[in-house]
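Sequence, please.
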C-alpha cells in the first residue's frame, strides 16, 4: 500500500476534544445540548448507527433520548412524536433515522422537523440555505468529508473534484461544499458515459454509490485523495466500502478505510450540529 491512510477515528477524536470544550462552556451557562434519535422498525444496521450516536453523546456530555418505534407505526403517530420533540425544550436536535419503512412518507416527516432542530440538514429550507452558502447546519456526512480532506493538507481550491453518486443526502450536498471551497466539481452517476475516464480526472474523488468495491484501481488518478462513503456487506458479511481498498490503495495518494473513515466523522458532525443548535 502506497497511499496514506486517512484515519477518520483519529480526526474524529481530535474534533471531539474541541467539542467537549464547547460543551463545557455551554454548561457554565446552564445549557446541555440535547439530541433525540427516532428509529422506526428494527433494521439491525440502523441499530448499530443509533448505538454509536448514543455513545458519542455520552462521551461528549450531551443529553440524548432514543425513541424506538415499532415497524407498524403510522404516519400520524410519527408526526405526533416529531411535533412533541419540536416543542420539547431540552431537545435541540432531532434525527429521524432513514430509510423509514415503505408505508411512511419520508419527505413529510423530514419537513415536519423544525428547521432549527434539523441537525441532519435534510429539510428543504436547510438544503436551500446550503445552496446559497448561508447555513447554520451542514449535512453530517459531507461536512465530515470536508474535515477529512482538510486533514490531508490538500487544498480543494482549483482542483478537479469528482463525486460519484447524486443522492440528496450525500452526493448533491457534497458537490456543493466542494464548490464552496472553489473546487472544480463534476457529479457522476449510473448514467454517466465512460465513468472511468471521468473519475480518472479527479484529484479528489468522493464515492457514494452504495455498491461494494465499485471503484477499481484503473478508475483512479495516481496520487488522488479517495473518500469512500460506502457501507456495504461483502460475501462474508464483512463491512466494506464502495472502493476496492486493497487495489486502490496502491494507486491513490490518500484513502479512507471502511470502517474507520467517513462513518465516525458523520457522527462527530452530528454532535457538532447538535451543539450549534443548542447555542441558539
Ligand atoms: N437521518 C439519518 N441521518 C444519518 O446520518 C443516517 C441515517 N439517517 N441513516 C443511515 C445513515 C448511515 N449513517 C452512519 C453513521 C455512522 C456510521 C459509523 O459509525 N460507522 C462506523 C462503524 C460501523 C459498523 O461497525 O457497523 C465506521 O464506519 O467506522 C455508519 C453509518 C448515518 N446515517
Amino acid at each position: 500500500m502506497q497511499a496514506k491512510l486517512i484515519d477518520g477515528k483519529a480526526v474524529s477524536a481530535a474534533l471531539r476534544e474541541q467539542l467537549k470544550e464547547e460543551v463545557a462552556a455551554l454548561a457554565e451557562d446552564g445549557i446541555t445540548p440535547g439530541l433525540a434519535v427516532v428509529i422506526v422498525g428494527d433494521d439491525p444496521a440502523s441499530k448499530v448507527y443509533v448505538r454509536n450516536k448514543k455513545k458519542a453523546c455520552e462521551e461528549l456530555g450531551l443529553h440524548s433520548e432514543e425513541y424506538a418505534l415499532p415497524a407498524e407505526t403510522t404516519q400520524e403517530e410519527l408526526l405526533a412524536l416529531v411535533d412533541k420533540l419540536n416543542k420539547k425544550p431540552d431537545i435541540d436536535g432531532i434525527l429521524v433515522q432513514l430509510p423509514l419503512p415503505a408505508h411512511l412518507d419520508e419527505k413529510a416527516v423530514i419537513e415536519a422537523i423544525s428547521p432549527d432542530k434539523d441537525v441532519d440538514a435534510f429539510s428543504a429550507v436547510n438544503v436551500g440555505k446550503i445552496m446559497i452558502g448561508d447555513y447554520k447546519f451542514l449535512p453530517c456526512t459531507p461536512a465530515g468529508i470536508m474535515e477529512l480532506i482538510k486533514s490531508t493538507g490538500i487544498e480543494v481550491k482549483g482542483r478537479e473534484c469528482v463525486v460519484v453518486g447524486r443522492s440528496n443526502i450525500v452526493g448533491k450536498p457534497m458537490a456543493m461544499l466542494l464548490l464552496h471551497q472553489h473546487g472544480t466539481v463534476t457529479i457522476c452517476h449510473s448514467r454517466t458515459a465512460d465513468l472511468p475516464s471521468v473519475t480518472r480526472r479527479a484529484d479528489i474523488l468522493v464515492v457514494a454509490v452504495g455498491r461494494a468495491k465499485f471503484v477499481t484501481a484503473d478508475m483512479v488518478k495516481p496520487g488522488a485523495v479517495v473518500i469512500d462513503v460506502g457501507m456495504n456487506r461483502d460475501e462474508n458479511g464483512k463491512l466494506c466500502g464502495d472502493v476496492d481498498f486493497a487495489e486502490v490503495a496502491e494507486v491513490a495518494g490518500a484513502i479512507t478505510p471502511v470502517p474507520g473513515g467517513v462513518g465516525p466523522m458523520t457522527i462527530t458532525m452530528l454532535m457538532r450540529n447538535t451543539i450549534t443548535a443548542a447555542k441558539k
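Residues 48-49, 52, 95-98, 120, 140, 231, 239, 258-260, 263-264, 266-267 surround 5,10-Methenyltetrahydrofolate (CB under 6 Å).
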